[in-house]
């Protein structure tokens, strides 16, 4: 089968995008999806995203996300932002969108090349002595540390992701964070399903911003996150019981289009 694909990146978190409105690709074919994401034998990406028609008439489209290991997974923030840019490229939307992903409905808009995506409200945050755990559409373990630049993310991230604590929960993503200033944090993320460090993780930096506020490491409701792939920002509203109006913003770009035999 010949498949037309598009490659997008959002702060270096890269995705194969497929317009699957005519159901050209099957969601059950783990091997094909893994092969397309393979950096040596395929196109190469941290994940693959299908743009599909939604059953909800209020939606512009539906997002189906797979990690590079070929398995469908939980929400991908950078992927969601890239998908909005892809929907604009396809002429499905102009500068605003509403779509359904695995964690529910998302709104988004594009302004001056920056794609902003509304994330789900976050109620539960587990604050522990040496880490904070929360789910921002995907599960995230957040560690505030020094010298984030020299950490062996693959080794230390995998040790936490495969630890007893997360065994029953399908693992977790792991974020290592160093404060840079009152409202700016440097973040490196080990991603579940890629099983390595990625250059940026959208649900990860969202988790970091909320964790930083919750643990009084910042008083700002708009936080700048510096990742190895670029800069993102997260704004939110702190209510008594939850965080709402959580917006993840940053660039999302088409890299190339191609055709692959699979
Ligand atoms: N890159 C993502 C997160 C993708 C999901 C993650 N790998 C998981 O399985 O939890 C993002 O930008 O949020």
UniProtKB/TrEMBL annotation:
- EC main class here is isomerase
Q: Which reaction does it catalyse?
A: (2S,6S)-2,6-diaminopimelate = meso-2,6-diaminopimelate
Please cite one Gene Ontology biological process associated with this protein. lysine biosynthetic process via diaminopimelate
Q: Please tell me one Gene Ontology term that the record gives under cellular component.
A: cytosol
The principal localisation class reads cytoplasm
SUPFAM superfamilies, alphabetically?
Diaminopimelate epimerase-like
Where in the cell? Answer: Cytoplasm
The active site is formed by 76, 76 (proton donor), 201 (proton acceptor)
What Gene3D superfamilies does the database record attribute to this sequence? Diaminopimelate Epimerase, Chain A, domain 1
Keywords attached to this Swiss-Prot or TrEMBL record, sorted alphabetically, are: Amino-acid biosynthesis, Cytoplasm, Isomerase, Lysine biosynthesis
Q: Which Pfam families match?
A: DAP_epimerase (PF01678)
| Associated pathway | Amino-acid biosynthesis; L-lysine biosynthesis via DAP pathway; DL-2,6-diaminopimelate from LL-2,6-diaminopimelate: step 1/1
What's its EC? 5.1.1.7
Its job: Catalyzes the stereoinversion of LL-2,6-diaminopimelate (L,L-DAP) to meso-diaminopimelate (meso-DAP), a precursor of L-lysine and an essential component of the bacterial peptidoglycan.
Q: Which family does it belong to?
A: Belongs to the diaminopimelate epimerase family.
By what name is this protein known? Diaminopimelate epimerase
């Amino acid at each position: 089968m010949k498949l037309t694909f598009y490659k997008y990146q959002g702060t270096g978190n890269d995705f194969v995008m497929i317009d699957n409105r005519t159901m050209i690709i099957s969601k059950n074919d783990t091997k094909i999806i893994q092969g397309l994401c393979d950096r040596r034998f395929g196109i190469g990406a941290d994940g693959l995203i299908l743009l599909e028609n939604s059953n909800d008439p209020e939606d512009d489209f539906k997002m189906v996300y797979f990690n590079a290991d070929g398995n469908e997974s939980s929400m991908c923030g950078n992927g969601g932002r890239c998908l909005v840019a892809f929907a604009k490229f396809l002429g499905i939307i102009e500068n605003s969108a509403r779509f359904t992903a695995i964690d529910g409905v998302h709104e988004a808009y594009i302004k001056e090349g920056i794609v902003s995506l509304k994330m789900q409200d976050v109620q539960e945050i587990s604050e522990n002595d040496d880490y904070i755990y929360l789910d921002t559409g995907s599960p995230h373990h957040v560690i505030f540390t020094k010298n984030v630049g020299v950490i062996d993310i693959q080794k230390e991230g995998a040790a936490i992701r495969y630890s007893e604590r997360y065994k029953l929960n399908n693992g977790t993503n792991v974020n290592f964070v160093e404060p840079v200033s009152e409202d700016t944090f440097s973040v490196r993320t080990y991603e579940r399903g890629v099983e390595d460090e990625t250059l940026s993780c959208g649900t990860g930096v969202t988790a970091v911003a909320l964790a930083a506020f919750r643990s009084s490491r910042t008083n700002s409701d708009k936080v700048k996150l510096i990742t190895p792939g670029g800069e993102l920002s997260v704004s939110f509203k702190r209510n008594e019981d939850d965080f709402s109006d959580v917006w993840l913003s940053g660039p999302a770009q088409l890299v190339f289009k191609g055709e692959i035999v699979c």
